[in-house]
Amino acid sequence: MNKIFIGIGCFVAGLIVGSIGSIQLTKKSIKQASQEEITKIRNLYFGDKENQNEKQEKEMSKVNRTSSTIDKFDAKTEAQYEKYSAQYSGDKKRRKTGTKPYVITEEEYINSENDQKGLYYFSDGVLADEDYNVIPNVEEIVGNANLMKFGENDNDPYVIYIRNEKYGIDYEVALQEQEFAEAAPKGTVRQHPVEDED
Question: How far apart are the two ends of the chain, measured CA to CA in Å?
C-alpha cells in the first residue's frame, strides 16, 4: 500500500514540476515572440540605425514641402490660419515663450492638468486632428523631431505623448499605418482647416 502512495506522490510531484516548467517555458517564448514583433515593427517604421538618418531626412523634406505650401497663403488665409492655430493651441493666457514641445511619459500625460488633444500621424507624414483636419504648423505644435520617437513607449509603440508648454496642451499622437488620403472619410478631408470669416 505504501508503494502505491509513494508512486502516486512521485507522479503528482512530477506533474507539478512539469507544469511549472512548461508555464515558465511558455512565458519565455511569448515574451520573446512579442519582443521580436516589437523589434520588427520598430524596424518597419524606423529602420535600423544606419537608415534612420536617411528616413529622418525624407520626413523633414515632406515637412518642408508642407511648409512651403503654407508660405503661399494670402493675407486672408493667414488670418484664418491664426484663428485656427489659436483654437488648436489652447488658452492664449497660458502661453510661455521659448519652450519647444517635448515627449512625456503616458503617466505624465494621464496626471497632467494641461488641456489634452488627440492627433493622428499618418505614414505619408501628415499630422491631423481627430476630425481629419490637417495640422500645418507641425514644428510649433508637436515638434518634427518628436514624431521620430514612435516605438520608445513600452506600453504602446504606436503612441507618443508630447507636451507643448507654450500652449499648455499635451498631445496624444497615434501612429497610423495608412496614408492620410486613405484614412480620412470621404468628404471630410480638409487641406486647410480654417473657418471662413463672413
Answer: 98
